[in-house]
């Protein structure tokens, strides 16, 4: 068979996705595999067992990133790397992250079955804690790997129960001793569901994002004065939740106010003591701002922050603001983006250039090596929800495009 006629086994890819989806399966048809939970460990164990079946050299680094390496005939050359993440959102979907990991696994299996030897080595990766939902920020381990985030800072991040990320990594047995530090990579590819409505609307099978928006995360802490709700008059209250409510709406109104292309969201909130008959005295909430225009996102934050301070003062609720994390927008390698388009066309899949509004480990990979992504459609544009869906044919299409992108990059000297 000519190499350009090689195709992945879509049935096997589907079976692997279905098997993985049993780990942390939720009643609503999704999965919950929070980073460094027992479910994350179980998914990792299964993943590693699959890597071993292919005789890959498996390494685990200090952040628990798992790599499986397949040697090349010119093994001294920098590898082609691809993967994504096995962790999920709370009540997340069966495709986010895991599709990219298992698409690359299917590529590895296909090469193995057909005894294809590549010039460059090929590496599959599962990045630890892409979601950032249990431990903020997201993409933390590709961030450390790329040298953009500090290992000790990452270890010290805590979840809502005060558990440290480093301790949880150790607890599940995935704190490796290989330094979490990048070495040269010739090309990084990541297959992912689009997580938005564009491909479906445009009737395209493959998306070739030109890059990823910037992501800016903030944590806001408000102090109020708790009191019995009945006897306490409305005047003179210091209700931290009311202050937060005004701020949440200010976030929602920010993109329209600032103009330009931007989204802004409050997705998480904790209210204390959270009793219907106590005035709330402690509120924490998060702010997520994204744009292709990093300066617009920063200017918008300055405006928002000023507004927060005014609200906090007026309501007599002291405010503490943490500027938790920023990653700049990531313009991908144009040559690789074109390669995705070309391979989609060569195989016969309608393809579209687009932008990624979702964050991905490709963002940090892009800071240290030529990078791009391969998107497949999300049914109804829904993601980070249990009903997240992508057709098996589209999953197979993404893996086929990845196969040929990997083969072509691996043949470059
Ligand atoms: C990652 O899942 C993101 O928040 O886009
Ligand atoms: Mn993802
Ligand atoms: Mn996600």
Report on the structure:
- The structure is a single chain.
- It contains 12 helices and 14 strands.
- It is α/β, with parallel strands linked by helices and 413 residues long.
- It folds into 2 domains: 3-212 and 329-410, Zn peptidases (Aminopeptidase); 214-327, Alpha-Beta Plaits (2-Layer Sandwich), CATH 3.30.70.
- Strand 1 (57-60) and strand 2 (66-70) form a beta hairpin.
- The longest helix has 21 residues, at 294-314.
- It is elongated.
- The mean pLDDT is 98.
List the helices and strands and how they pair.
Elements: H1 10-21, H2 38-53, E1 57-60, E2 66-70, E3 80-84, H3 98-113, E4 122-126, H4 140-145, H5 151-156, H6 165-171, E5 187-193, H7 198-202, E6 206-212, E7 214-223, H8 240-258, E8 262-265, E9 269-272, E10 282-291, H9 294-314, E11 319-327, E12 330-331, H10 334-347, E13 351-356, H11 362-368, E14 371-376, H12 392-410
Parallel strand pairs: 3-4, 3-5, 5-14, 6-13
Antiparallel strand pairs: 1-2, 2-4, 6-12, 7-10, 7-11, 8-10, 9-10
Helix pairs in contact: 1-3, 1-12, 3-12, 8-9, 10-12
Give the overall pLDDT as a whole number.
98
Number of domains: 2
Largest sheet: 6 strands, mixed
Radius of gyration: 23 Å
Cofactors, ions and other ligands in the entry? glyoxylic acid, manganese (II) ion
The secondary-structure element order is HHEEEHEHHHEHEEHEEEHEEHEHEH
Distance between the termini: 23 Å
What is the top-level CATH class of the largest domain?
Alpha Beta
Overall geometry: elongated
How are the strands of the biggest sheet laid out side by side?
Answer: 1-2-4-3-5-14
Number of contiguous helices: 12
Number of strands: 14
The CATH homologous superfamily of the largest domain:
Zn peptidases
CATH fold call of the largest domain = Aminopeptidase
Helix content: 25-40%
Question: Structural class of the helix and strand makeup?
Answer: alpha/beta
